[in-house]
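Weekly modeling sync, notes
Attendees: S.R. (lead), two postdocs, one rotation student

Agenda item 3: backlog of single-chain predictions. S.R. asked that every request posted to the team notebook include the full sequence so nobody has to chase files. The rotation student volunteered to paste the first one in as an example of the format we agreed on. Action items at the bottom.

Example entry:
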Amino acid sequence: MSTQQVTLPISGMTCAACVMHVEGGLKEVAGVQNAVVNLANERATVQFDPEKANVEKMVAAVRDVGYDVVVDKVTLPIGGMTCASCVMHVENGLKDIPGVLNVSVNLATERATVEMIPGAVTLADLKHAVEDTGYEVLDVGGKQEELVDREAALREEERQREWRDLIIGIIFTAPLFVLVMTHDIIESLGMHQVLPWWMMSDTLNWIALMLATPVQFYVGRGYHRGAWKSLRAGAPNMDLLISLGTNAAYWFSVIVVVAGLFNIYIADHVYFESAAVIITLIKVGKYLEARAKGQTSEAIKNLIKLQAKTARVERDGQEIEIPVDAVRVGDIVSVRPGEKIPVDGMVVAGYSSIDESMITGESLPVEKNIGDTVIGATINKVGAFKFEARKVGRETALAQIIRLVEDAQGSKAPIQRLADQIAAVFVPIVVAIALATFAIWMIFGSAPVFSNAFVNFVAVLIIACPCALGLATPTAIMVGTGKGAENGVLIRSGGALETAHKVTAIILDKTGTLTRGAPAVTDTVVSGQWSVVSKDEFLRLVASAEKNSEHPLGQAIVKHAQESGLTLTEPSEFGAVAGHGLRARVDGHDVLIGNSKLFVDSHIVLDGLESQASKLSDEGKTAIFAAIDGAPAGLIAVADTLKPNSKAAVAELKKLGVQVYMLTGDNPRTAAAIAKQVSIDHYFAEVLPHQKADKVKELQAKGEIVAMVGDGINDAPALAQANIGIAIGTGTDVAIQAAEITLMSGDLRGVVTAIALSKQTIRTIKGNLFWAFFYNVLGIPVAAGVLYPFFGILLNPMIAAAAMAFSSVFVVTNSLRLRGFRAPAI
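Predicted structure, as returned to the notebook:
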């Protein structure tokens, strides 16, 4: 069974209850395997079986529970159509794209109108689908907006509408509030005789009605619509609480005013100003919340901005500039100094130095020569070069990073479960409490009984804030995963971000994790006549003998000699001695290179080199002996050297209270030497690839929360077994896919960053949840009037509205503090 994933931008959600209702609606669609809805970024991530479910059914399900999916339309000029059959081919080709909802192709105008999910479909997807059917999308002359930013544009339009509604609300509410408060203050002072006729109660009530009505039914229309939809779907949400409270205040006041026309007395006070102020204050809060939520996805926006817009490619013998979406695999792309590299590929001509800091977090430029890979969105510093495009569109490293971060930001952390469980029953419980409050005050309350009961009923409905519960975790997860990406640490899910702070033991695979993963020369020791002649000459002869060797240790010696500026010569004779070394003739000298057994078999005495070899072996190095013209000349030590920051990273992990273990296939002596160099107290030696996962299980059996760090294919089982797997980004795709966290730079300091970021994010989430629970647990009883018997205080619904608006803004702004996270200095 194949599984596909689609992300749907949802509109109309206001609280945690909305999240539960949308998730429930999507999960009822046949073929949907899982659905996770995020209130902070207003998206639903859905995994489904494409043979049973499609996007159209999902959109219908969302609409059935009272919400909507943001959709967009784009018109494409099509070339090559000649008949009705062509129309069918183009329509069918476009409809096959996941995320396309509807297609209408007009032969007369030669245009295709496509309705689709913004973000799920790109302009390149549409073009390729049309081209695959044998037709073409004509040049749109720059008028067609890039679809990658359409969702953001539509969201911005929505925010602008909210802003206009807010201004209208303020225009009508401000004078209403001032008039009513002025009237009440003057009357309370017994000075009503100074009031002009139009501020007398009867007249003022009609003025209040006229000012409150546009706020109630125009500015607050979204809440009333949302309430009606939620009731129809049997899924009550925050809109219902606001609509019930404001409608109760408004219509009660209307009844009082109209009854007065017939000299029927109902109550002294009306609540037009309460209804208007409640709606306007909540609009203020929601607008501020929306702005703040927009900042939580700043990391994604910054990543998208990294993308190059155009590329210069060779087509038909000419170099032309095309949109980056039009680059195909196999194209030869030219890059000049200072330009962004458009897509991923391999250098085929020229060389340069490239700034990859935006992808890996490494500040130093990386040298690139023919055969080296380059990453799209990185910056070419000095040289001009050409490369062959290997990964384009959604397959580039940057596109995958963006997708991974989006998935992580849309995921749920286990810590959110309690909030979800409460959100599922929150609104019905609040309505029940509000009705119980009204009944209790009507039965046991003090005069004016009805007025007090009514005020407390409205206050309970308005002060309850399920949105704070819904935003507490996802906003922090969004900012936390974004900060991780900025620091070269890709976190796959909210669960991984939460688990990282619990880690008590971490296993570091030696090769490629602690070490560079490739042998390098560490020591050159000469003896006999060569100690007097020249160390460089000794190294030159040995490296020349190894020039044609395919052995990794021999290649390390050749590389070291070349980096030392030595000119190597081609050996005139060369022969490998299987399992022991080689013989060669270089510049008239007989050169013998290998292990001690080769020298014993050749009857050459090592002239004291054994003791030095033993000392080097204790340090985890491999000694290679060399004889020239039958006499022992010296030895060269080769080792898989430590990465520059490994020791500092291990020390920092210990400071965080984490037990550090090294895992290696080396013998215990070599393992002990490496562990000593990086100050690791615990290590597993002589571990075969299939035994790595067993070592993770051993620690887990002792009650440890284990993180495993590795980079190879044989690390994948251990990465999957660990409580949290951390892959080195320079390693294999298999290892990266098995891990929850990927370090793009291959630097172990990223592990420290991930754990530190996790700790700070979880602290923020716990603070948010505490506030959300504390606010509701304290606010609802106060609104119900529990303080009245002790202090004679009743909570005004307008103050309740201000508190409710502030609560969600507080949670989002508290999460935004994570943007100030700095990776630990090591």
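Discussion: group reviewed the output briefly. The CA atoms of residues 193 and 661 lie 85 Å apart.
Action items: rotation student to repeat for the remaining queue; S.R. to check formatting next week.
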